[in-house]
Amino acid sequence: MAKKRVEQTITAVLKKAIAESGLPYLTIEQATGVKRASIMRFMRGEQSLRLDMADKLASHFGFECRRPRHERAR
What CATH number labels 11-63? Predict the structure, then answer.
């Protein structure tokens, strides 16, 4: 039986990575350049992140975007 793929939003993936990292927001700010206040508002759901900020956080946590294999062949 084929495994069903669960799709997640970038927001959900980043929030989970930040929360599970256990890192203080100040440490994440120092490593990425994304302001601690922006991270806090993002985590509370008060604001979205600009794409450049999301890119920095994704890179810091080792994420990359790519198409699923079945879509690459098209």
Answer: 1.10.260
